[in-house]
Amino acid sequence: MLIEVENENIFYGDFLAVKGVNMQIRANTITALIGPSGCGKSTFLRTLNRMHEVIPGARVEGEVKVEGVNIYDRGIDPVQVRRKIGMVFQRPNPFPTMSIADNVLAGVKLNRRRMSKSDQEALVEESLRGANLWNEVKDRLDVPGSALSGGQQQRLCIARTIAVKPEIILMDEPCSALDPISTLAIEDLMATLKSDYTIVIVTHNMQQAARVSDMTGFFNLEAQGQPGQLVEMNETAKIFENPDQKATEDYISGRFG
Questions:
Q1: What's the angle, vertex CA 117, arms to CA 131 and CA 147, rounded to 5?
Q2: Domain range spanning residue 95?
Q3: CDD domains recorded for this chain (predicted)?
């Protein structure tokens, strides 16, 4: 799914947190968002499926179009937006008392989709296979999701996301709490998933951005208390090897951030 962001300003009450974002995210690609802490990357990411609206006073000016439809138009149900645009958070958050199978089905049941037992079983297997977790858990689907390792829990959360059949997956620092082996498993999974989904990932790990993404956007802020902004977005190889903006080069080379 093509995402087009036009003249987006993001507010918390009267405070302008991120200003003037213009960005196009191509379908079936991985786009990484990098930049120093506090520059608005995660705030921007949450506007792509209206998750920021759970914070009182949060609002957006401008447009976020998915396949040409502005998700902020009046009459657009944010719940429907979030079904189409799933999200994986920084720390694995399976429902600890639910079984692995019930964790996968949680979003489907929340959406009040009625399914036969056989259809549920098929969806659990399909989603766990999609998250590259099936072979590790197929013989213990009744154990709590919290019994899995951190990396497995994160893949379980990805399975829960794709079970709802979204078209876009947003990932906010999905590997920051994981060990290197689990991180590699998630990165390999992202590379597989992009054939079926458009993926946008926020990461502080520039090596990760360079490894997994097709496009990279660099966010920055001029000073504390000033709004964050998109400084530059381009193909990942260009951003890391020959960026157009000095601020991008300084960040990537470690001069600040």
A1: 45
A2: 3-253
A3: ABC_PstB_phosphate_transporter
Counting the structural domains of the chain, the total is: 1
Q: What is the pLDDT of residues 13-49, one digit of tens each?
A: 999 999 999 999 999 999 999 999 999 999 999 999 9
Q: What is the pTM of this model?
A: 0.91
CA gap 210, 177 in Å, rounded: 19
DSSP code string of 40-91: SHHHHHHHTTTGGGGSTTEEEEEEEEETTEETTSTT--HHHHHHHEEEE-SS
Q: What is the CATH number of the domain that holds 99?
A: 3.40.50.300
